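Obj.: predict assembly geometry.
Materials: sequence records (below).
Method: joint structure prediction, all chains together.
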Amino acid sequence: MTGHLAEKDRELDRRILPKVIACACALAQLHFPVRAADGSAGTDLERVSYLLTGQYDAWAEYRQLSGEEQRRLSRMLRQRPNRLSNEESLTTDAERFLATGALCEYVLQANGLLAARHGMLPQELADVLLEEIDRLRAEDSRSLPEAEPGDYVTTLRVPVAGHDSTWAVQAHYSLQERHAAPQAEPVAVHTAPTAGALALKVEAFLALNRDLDQRAGETFRTESLEPLFAQLRTGDDVELGDLLHVEAGNLQVLQAPTGFGKSVLMRSLGSWAQSEGVTLGLAVPTTMAALKMAYGIEKDLRSCGVEHPEQLVVPLMSPNSMMTALDQVAAESRDRAFIKWAEDRLGYGCALPSLATVDDEVDAWVPGHEACMSLIPYRPVGAPEPGRGSKARRQGACACPFRAVCGKFRLVRQACTAQIIVTTHANLYQGHLHIPVQVDSGAIVERMTVEELILRRCQFTALDEVDAFQSFVLGRAGRGLTLAWGNRHDQRPLLRLDGEFIQAFGRVRPALDESMRNTLMRTRWLAETYTSHLAHGALGPSDRTDTKKKGSPLKASGRPTQERRWIIPQRWDGWISTQLRALFANDDQQVTGHERGFSPNVAERGLFAALYERKIKMAALPEHLHPLAELLRDVIDPDSQAGSLSHVRRQLEQLLAPWVPNQQVRADVLDRMLRRAFLEPLRLLLYRFVHNAQQLKLAGVETARDIADVLGPFSAWRAIPHGPQGRLMFAFTEDVRTEVPQDTRLSVAAFGGDPHTYITTLGQITALAHSGHRRIVLGLSATAYAPGAHRHHVHTAPTWWVPDDVDHGVSIEADLFPGLGEEMLRVSGITGKERIEATRLLGRRMWPRLRGELKDLGRLSKHRVQDSILLVTTSYDSCQHLRDGLLAGGAEPGLIAVAVRPRPDDEPASRHDESGEPLWHEIPGDQLESFTRLPKARILIAPLGRAERGLNILAPQSNKSAIGSIWLAIRPVPLVDEPDELLAHVGARALDEKESSSEPWTELERRHVVAGHYFEKLVTSERYFRSLPPRAKRAIAAELIISLIQLVGRARRGGTPGRIKLVDAAFLDTGGNSDLPHLIRELREQWATSNELSRMRRYYGTTLDAFFRFADRHARESAR
Amino acid sequence: MISTLAFLFPHTALGKITLYPLNREFGEAWSALPSYGDAKNGKPRRPPYAGLASALSAVSGQPVVLMPHCYGVVDDEFAQPAVAVTTRPFDPWILSTAVRDWERCVRKGEDANTLAPLLTAADVEHPNLSTYVRGAEHGTPHAPSWFYRVAAWNFAQRLARTPLPVPNGPRMRHIRWRMDTQGSLISWENITKRTTQKPKRSGYALHKLDFRVVTQPGEPLFALHVLPTFSRLATHWASTRTVFIEHSTHKETLLRMPIGHTKNSDGQWVPYARNYAAEVLEACGMDFAAWPTNDDLAALKGQMRALVPAPVPHVLGKGVGTRFNKILADHINETIKRPRIIQVSFEPTGVELTRPTKGAVTRADLDHALAATGSETVRIIALYNDGTTRRRMAEALAPYTNTPDRLLDCGDHDDHHLSERLIVRFHRLPALDRAERVDWDDELAFLDQFADGALNGAWVETIWNPKPTKRERETGQHRHDHKRDLRRALYERNIVSQFLARQAPPEPDDTAEAESDAETEVPKDYKAINALRDLLFRLGSVDDRLRHVTDLTDEPILVGIHLRQQRISNRRPGAADRTQMVEILTALHTHNDPDRPWHMDSYDHSTHDWRPQAAAEAAFGQHAIGREGHARHEEGALLARQHIESALKILPTDRPLIIFVDTEACRTIWPGLQNVRFGKGPLPGDDLRTPTRSVSVIAINTSYGEVPTPVENTASPRKNPKRPPKPQERLYQRTTSTGHTSWYIAQASRTYDGFGNAGSIGGVHTRFTLPADDWALQRKDWHSFTATQITVPHAGKRDPQQLAALAAQLCHQSLAWDARTRHPVPLHVAGAMDRAHPEYRGPSIEPTNAPEAGETRDGE
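Observations (raw structure tokens):
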């Protein structure tokens, strides 16, 4: 989206917005009518606001609405900008529109009632408005202009040899007439007709698979699908029968343990869909999986004699990552045919570099970074401004003229017509089409989302690893950014931005250049000054309401005390203005020695905010507040004479002393006022990055994009843009470690949305909004149902499931190693250098044990089945440290393969010693399956995130796992501080006792309160795992169980036993009752009380029992 | 059959006690007491319950137990928080006055009087002790913790009523016993005295019978162990800690008081009774006995007698002798008739213990035994600074040369091959004679030249160095004892060491005599021979003697788990309260193949791996002896257990395990070793057991108080009617009424066996009736028979008796000794490693380098 398009959009929004609100009013009047005092029909803003949130799962009657009514609601939602989902924003806008008459269908009455003044049936009004909006959009829609012949520039970021960083160079292009774009209509995206319910006939389906097996001379389809269907249960343990009914609407889940052929099922769905004439969408976790799936389906179709299967199946991925994907296929696969196939699909050449002249001697083609939509008309310095109107369209960026024919967009174009679209989780959630398409209404959409494409085109969508998809969405819905971090240079986007901005000198529009420089400098100044105050203790950590004991046992164990807190700048406005009531009123009668109860007053709050606001002239403030305002404004004035913060603080202290006599309260007021002085302007400044990111990116300042990504992931339309909290959360985190001031850090995070509900309602609310039809959405996973697991529990009971009652001999055991001191080694819970050392030591300690384990495995194994060890940690870095330790402990050369962060072009490599023996092997994290090709390697060290899912490390020429035992070296404890974790915890908590009501806004209010309290509890708890609220601890334990169930699946491939060894002593550390056995027992109790235990036992059977056995075995020890 | 000094008595024989149940308020009032600093310069601490109990004992002349926890049994939910137990009810006035005054003392004069009302308000009960016993029917009797101390009182009182008749020639000498306030019996009137002329000294001792109530594995009845001691009396107050007082108010009972020492106004050290006993007595209107002077003590005057504080040189020896034990056992059997008590005795099994090989490894076996060290060659580095010592070493090495009859002759500073595997190298080290501390790192730098991969062991001359006397220390005359530093320095170089004390050169005429009389055998230099033998054993040489006496077909690994808690002593504030746990694990790998010697590995903490014996011992010696934070109880026990289990997991998993543990040291760590949860609770190696791998656990108990003391072998024909026959070389067993069998081996000590009449004098006489001619033998230690009890908490699919026999056989046929060891080989080796550590029962060595650095070196 380029600048002027965005501007046009905004203009369009201005025209559409009142209509959307009016439409919402009409629907509220229809569904939640309130009779006005004068007897006229109407509704009120609370109800309107509810409808705009999209959270229809709280509405008891929603399910009974007719398809037509549901569709109307969703169509309205589709037109609603995310912002309006917030009650406050809605009220502001609605009141403004009502006042100006932009919204003339309703009038606002004194008691907040909206009385209808349209004289129609509300549903008619809604339909009229929706039609109107559609018309406006269609009229206004147009694609990005294609570059006409002329000179263009763009900035390329090219990699610097031997570095991770990139360098910006400017490329000039001269387009001739012969390069003009061919005249072609945009590709049409036809919405598939509705398919309310489909029945998969089990017998026929199996017959189809037998047939496929026969044709291909394979057996795996029958071998895995027959047992799958034989054991498939529905509801409360009823056998499936002959038909598998899938229904459009809310998510349906099929849960089956790892190794039960879910992937095979997905693949065969392809052939089935083709024969049934159903359009099918498949979403899998990774690009590789998507490619393999598409390739497999295509092969199946071809073997069935279908003509042109390559046109029916398309692996849809971001055009920018196609070359990377191709490289990965070439590196990872040994299947020649597959590589060839991928080359045909993914390979492309870019025509632009041949037209380019580049300042430096660099290759002008960086695959994936082509200037497809960022050709900027070149205007030599000093050339006159083009006259307004004449060539206005050449002002902004233009699209590459070859876009319509370029191989890069081959897959995207195909996706618009193919019958089966295979894509990835990431692409489904946040991808978009890079070419303009035309929808049924005739509107041309430049950046249609993949989500919309799939829901428009696919009657049936299957999501593999649906719980991982949910977790992914959570990860995207909450993100953070470090603003300042002590003495560090790395991981500070502002610094990098600074550097890139300097590189881009002269390429940025003058106006933007100036404003951006101001913004950047000011942001850095505020963030760094604030951090420096934190480090020096000038801003005391006074938010702590309860004074924590210092020198706690934690300190004794060598961990530095750490303060990490969330700060929401305006959170205290109400409180502070309440405390300053006497001062504001300039009335010493009101002075009180106590803390005032919280009773905010809008006027006072406004006054308080105005104290800071530089734009408000001093004269506009009451005179007695001038000194206060001056001080507060001076604090953040770099040129101020007022000087140091402590000086200002002293003056403020004197100033406030008579008005707030209670010293404790005064200190709190002061501290919070000072914090706000920094953080509130900082918050506003950050938004400027979002606005200017696109422009900056064009100039080669790509980091601006990173910053914008954090704050702006919410610009994409979502049916339910805000979660239980009802708004976007925007908060700073300050991280102060008393002993290491140089580690002081300030970060910012934004999070919002309701991924849990998004997943379950994708086929219902979202699909209706995009396509006007409910869609069938089927989720598959081994671990979709795990109440309590905040990230991976999908909030709907599985419709079909396969009991995990085959005893594969899953075992979970603790296997601890002694540390240097008295205790067994623990890594989790320590940080920095100590953590590195502990990890190395752990490696050293583990070697003798692993040596024995390898010997044992080797004795029992044949043909490399289960003769290897998977050693799992929490990060790529810790993989390296463990490897160092193992080698120092005496591990033989060549035995270890270690996962490294995947980078393009990397292939499995070995590090050699002098004699040429490989000391260890390195495998990029996305190619771990190639482990078994290393003849000597027996230990694979990989991070949990890479290892837990979808990884099939099979013994050569077999379908049995090569992994004999899995050692979890470090207890993963996700930081609750991370915005996505926080969002997951809060979101899951709000859904705990979810119910639906005929006054759904009350249910939303309840969720809001629950979520608010829980959020408060989480962010005010100390930053140690043990001090988290019990629910959060249980949630993390449940997540860990899910992780381990997935992980043990790695060893269970092919029916081999799965053995998990927990190595980190933190698993068993009984301090604070946060040891894993205790948490598992608590979870079991929790499940038992909520009547979920029997269900859990059915789903996870023997595996879950292994966890319970482990928990009970260690019950004694911790009780002693 | 072997009879013992332990008696099972029916629960009805336990009798009644006087009990004051205390409520929660008492516990709260107690917690509110201020910290208490009666030890003058000691650290103030919360008053122990024993403090008040001791004061109450003083005023009442009765044993008193005040127990904080568990009025009932441990798992009884109606348990009351506290209880006071004694023999007879207290006089209420005395009770309230004493408690009130004691509290006043603790509160430094403040008369708060919080405890006395609560204590006097308690309703006195006279329950039968048997009502507190639980679980007897399952063979696991248990009772509240105070029970075990209280249960012996009634028995002691009853025994004290009848004097002990000791045959004295044709007549009987009757020994009268008096009970003290701890429930021991004291022969107060029958003092043994011995006077020496040069130096002129007199010493006194009395007989004391201690009683201990213990359980036997699987035995429904409690056993009362009688532990007779020959308690020597102090002739000077210095350092004494316990005093007996014959108090005028309580004729019946002797007060046994803990005492402390304080400086009076004259700057003299004087004793005082701790726990404010004197003040409390005074408040109750009783006089505290006058403190005898040092001269009084030396002449045994006055009403007080103090026990010697520690093992000190004394004109009287220790121990009462086997004959006394026999007389005592008979007396008890005679006296206690109703209800009947049963003397614990053990029946012989068919397992005879054999010892086909004695002494050092022979030359023929040498290379085979050295192959067990895991090294191709083994070098003995002989460090000396005295010609005689060199000669003695050479003599001891001679049997390993081709010419065993001739003295080994070789030069210094050069390797000399004794056999294919064994090299010796002499090195004169003058620093050994230096009186002051030596920088051994520097002196031993020459050791770094060996780069041939041979395993090195040092045989080092030392000047025997007893503890310096105070005067020597003050005048600085004393020589520095290098052993500790030197051993450490050698360990740092991965060298194990063995010391040989220097002897004076033989007198010239001795030599002449020996030469002239060539027929007579030259007396063997056992000290040198044994030292060399021990050095070889430290290096890890194992010959086939163990294979010959055992019958292990499935090649198990024999593991020894040795644990010992040691106080940290580094003269830092607060260090006195910190302990460390010495954890040593050894593994004897057995083989069926006669070409492969069995070999010994030990666990090395620093690398978390098992290493060949010598390397492991050196690694052990380089670091602190124990692990701080590991302990016998609670958290510390869990840590120790986790650590040991993680070590056991590294052993090869394709071999069965047989684990030997010391019961007393290990049972709090693995509750399955306790009699009350025998075989049911956690045991070492629980995690290692698989369907195909057997893991057996054998518990070895050698505790004096717990293993019944053998009295005599009743089956043996008596050669001397007086002397109790000694046990046979055989495995004994006892099966309880619940069908639980434990095994027992018993022996006379080498001293008892080997030194003619003098060694076994205790077998023919008692201390009371020793003829005047032999009176000088009072200076000897009069040994009793000793015993080791073997139980099998988990047989791991083997026959328990065979396991017991294996343990017994591995005690009987030791690796390198002529006689039995107290523990089977794997445990014995572990104990030997412990004792060789430079910090063994000594001050902790401050680490000079970071532990991490030390480890890195290991890794290289």
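Conclusions so far: The radius of gyration of chain A is 31 Å.
To do: check interface contacts against the pulldown list.
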